[in-house]
């Protein structure tokens, strides 16, 4: 699944393969988190990799790395997770992190229209700069623990957007853990279905 049809633009480029690590046992998969400031990318990374959550905001500078082992369809995998900064001044550096990723998760905050509107820009950015045509994409609406009265983006609207762009979609809460493991599992399964 991929929303980015690069076949016509760059037919010479080869799709990325899942790489074996040195022991030849676990497969390495690179996943990148993208999205505006304050949407909860670092919180999602922390919840997924360490099962922890902190309500105090710490701005990410450029990018942060974490990894976690997973077993999908009996195959041992090492997920290399790059949590990027949402702040505009770091944007020009982010292609270093996503250009050879196997999968990207674009995150918005369900209580912020602005962050949802930015998703299109993140897709454009990927479309212009990625090297491969097999990057699996997911759209994640984070902070779904918030009150319905605080919600600005209807779930159906985001789901339709994701479908139109060939993206996996899930609402998550890094605060409660809802949907976090599921979105990564879905993403990896999607990427791995023809390769493991
Ligand atoms: N209610 C709620 N708050 C959350 C959730 N996830 C993150 N937050 C809060 O939102 C704020 C921003 O979270 P971060 O994870 O630092 O956001 P970020 O996207 O990494 O921000 P940058 O590093 O600046 O790009 C923090 O105060 C978090 O505690 C969530 O699922 N629910
Ligand atoms: Mg961050």
TrEMBL record:
<keyword id="KW-0547">Nucleotide-binding</keyword>
<dbReference type="GO" id="GO:0005525">
    <property type="term" value="F:GTP binding"/>
</dbReference>
<dbReference type="GO" id="GO:0003924">
    <property type="term" value="F:GTPase activity"/>
</dbReference>
<protein>
    <submittedName>
        <fullName>Uncharacterized protein</fullName>
    </submittedName>
</protein>
<dbReference type="Pfam" id="PF00071">
    <property type="entry name" value="Ras"/>
</dbReference>
<feature type="region of interest" description="Disordered">
    <location>
        <begin position="1"/>
        <end position="21"/>
    </location>
</feature>
<dbReference type="InterPro" id="IPR001806">
    <property type="entry name" value="Small_GTPase"/>
</dbReference>
<dbReference type="InterPro" id="IPR005225">
    <property type="entry name" value="Small_GTP-bd"/>
</dbReference>
